[in-house]
Amino acid sequence: MNLIIEILINQLTILFALIMAVFLGFELISKVPTVLHTPLMSGANAISGVVIIGAIILVRSSGSEDYLSLFFGSLAILLGTINVVGGHAVTNRMLQMFRKK
Amino acid sequence: MTALINLVYLISVTLFIIGLQRLSSPKTASSGNLIAALGMGFGVLIALISPVESGDGNYFFISGALILGGGIGLLVSTRVIMTKMPEMVSLFNGLGGACALLISIAELLNFHYLETFELASYLTTLLALLIGSIAFSGSLVAYGKLSGKIKDSWKLPRANMINMGLLLTLMGISFYQLQTLESMELVILIAILSLLYGITFVLNVGGADMPVIISILNALTGVSAALAGIIYDNMIMLMGGILVGSSGAILTILMCQAMNRSLINVLAGGFGGEVGIAAQVGDQTVKEVNIMDASIMLRYSTNVVIVPGYGMAVAQAQKICKELEDLLEEVEVNVRYAIHPVAGRMPGHMNVLLAEADVDYAKLLDLDDANKFLKETDVAIVVGANDVVNPSALDDPGSPIFGMPVLEILKGKHVIVLKRSMSSGYSGIENPLFFHEKTSMLFGDAKKSLNNLLDELKTTV
After folding, report:
1. Is A10 on the interface with B (CB under 8 A)?
2. How many structural domains is chain A composed of?
3. Distances B253 to B37, B103, B148, B250, B393 between C-alpha atoms, Å
4. Nearest Cα to B27, choosing from A7, A98, A13?
């Protein structure tokens, strides 16, 4: 319980942003036509690849002897980049089809 | 410098928001994706140059992984065929989950070398590990199910109890770990159990419900990215992750609403295992139609509706549908496409395929418009759709899909069903439509049948 209160107090700004973002996400998506569900899901999936930023920071702040962090971090960057680049590219391909008439 | 970095992060987050907003309208969607990608580019750039407290940079590894990953991503995304899109998205999502899993496990192991650390950070990292692992293994199972590598019948006995037990065990061990913080082995155990939970959780859900699951898993990846953002005190990860988490959650709810089912019902694996209704209709007869009669029926119709389903995707029949449409329009038959929101293996799946075949946007009718148009329809051609045209949803309270909004296909005068065999649909529910007096069956591969129909029509047009 103390832990939860500690988190609430320490991370107040973050919680603020978090709650705003939750409602923003709801608002943005609630008006989407069904035709766009697949590309939207794919695009959102690419955005969730933002986690590579954490992987980059992890590798950068590791010592060059810290093989464990280097291995896990580099693998994380590799997989995350496939997600980001592949995700945006696939979304783009899908949306190109809607455009050509 | 810090202010500048935060400013660029703010710009990145804004680009994400604008991107998502533009993605939700057909006209702006394409630019929305590029804007979001630009935001990601800025974010990565800043992550590469912003000062870090310690460490040796290790740019060799970073650039190597970035280039290799980017190359693989581009290669795969240009090679994959459109019908495989749902499983591709699921696979990509799994990789995002794996990324969160890997960094949180590395961070957790690093914690154990520190003299002091905040318990709150440890908890956040543990949660990121848990959720990332579930998203990773769950997405891989969803990928397996969609691509047919994992059979829908591979279900665990008492799956709901196993899932609940696993989840409780996970919570118990995590709580114990937070109290003691002693053992690194427990971290590994938590990761393994989370991976296991992801597998059993998705395995239990019927194959027809995979779209909903992908949406949930996508939201989970977002949440784990956001949690990782808290670890690194990084605003763009936090905001980006939460945006994906909340939009994924709302998309999940929208999809469940389209099927008139609760999320709990989907997760409990409500569809797929039930075979009780099969016996009732087991010995009814079906009416077959030959190509010539079918083509004459179409030729002298005023309104024709094509109802695509996953079978169209499998047979790659979308281009032939378009050819049939063109030919019929030449002789002044109105052709429309009736798109059920959950036809195919992903919402919007049919729209993507038909757009690929150059079908005019205006000819695609959504559920409500299609049901209006069906009243004036002479012939409805069902191309590999099954559950979304099942009339039991309307009139049989005993059916597991009773109450789900479906295309009311029997409002039209005739129905021609293109089907490979009399096997039941993906969800395993028997479909009385096939035995209805208005229905004629045209057995065979959908593409081949449509081709034959096209050839026959050409001789009469």
Report:
1. yes
2. 2
3. 26, 30, 26, 5, 20
4. A98
What string of DSSP letters covers A4-37? HHHHHHHTHHHHHHHHHHHHHHHHHHTT--GGGH
pLDDT the model gives residue B381? 93
- Residues β-bridged to residue B460: none
ipTM exceeding the 0.85 mark: yes
Active site (annotated) includes residue B387: yes
Q: B99 vs A57: CB contact, 8 Å cut-off? A: no
Shared domain for A75 and A91, answered yes or no, is yes
Do A84 and A47 belong together in one domain? yes
Q: Does A31 touch chain B (CB under 8 A)?
A: yes
Interface test with A, best of B35, B227, B244 (most A CBs within 10 A): B244
Q: Which of A3, A28, A42 sits opposite B24 (nearest CB)?
A: A28
- Residue B442's beta-bridge partner residues? B418
Size of interface A-B (CB pairs under 8 A): 380
Residue B106: per-residue pLDDT: 92
Cα–Cα distance measured from residue B241 to residue B167, given in angstroms and rounded to the nearest whole number: 23
Residues A63 and A20 in one domain: no
Question: Do A27 and A40 fall into the same domain?
Answer: no
- In the prediction, which pLDDT does B275 show? 37
Across the interface, whether the CB atoms of A73 and B248 are under 8 A apart is answered no
Least confident range from B165-174, B199-208, B251-260, B269-278: namely B269-278
> What residues of chain A lie within 8 A of the CB of B187, using their CB?
none
Per DSSP, the three-state class of B304 is: strand
Determine, for residues A48 and B244 on separate chains, whether the beta-carbon distance falls below 8 Å: yes
Catalytic residue, from B358, B387, B396, B445: name it: B387
- pLDDT, mean of residues B400-404: 79
More confident position, B85 or B451: B451
- Same domain? A75 vs A100: yes
How does pLDDT run across A25-39, given as a tens digit for each residue?
Answer: 888 887 777 777 788
Whether the full predicted model's pTM is greater than 0.90, yes or no, is no
Q: Are residues A40 and A84 in the same domain?
A: yes
Highest mean pLDDT (candidates B93-97, B171-175, B400-404, B422-426): B93-97
Element (H, E) at B139: helix B119-146
Q: Are residues A48 and A27 in the same domain?
A: no
Contact B54 A47 (CB under 8 A): no
pLDDT of res. B67? 95
Please give the residue range of the domain that contains residue A4. Answer: 1-31
Contact A92 B30 (CB under 8 A): yes
- A46 with A64, same domain? yes
The closest CB to that of A50, out of B32, B40, B339, belongs to B40
Tell me if A73 sits within 8 A of A55, measured CB to CB: yes
For chain B, say whether A16 makes contact (Cβ under 8 Å): no
The pLDDT, as a whole number, for residue B284 is 65
Asked if residue B456 has pLDDT above 80, the reply is yes
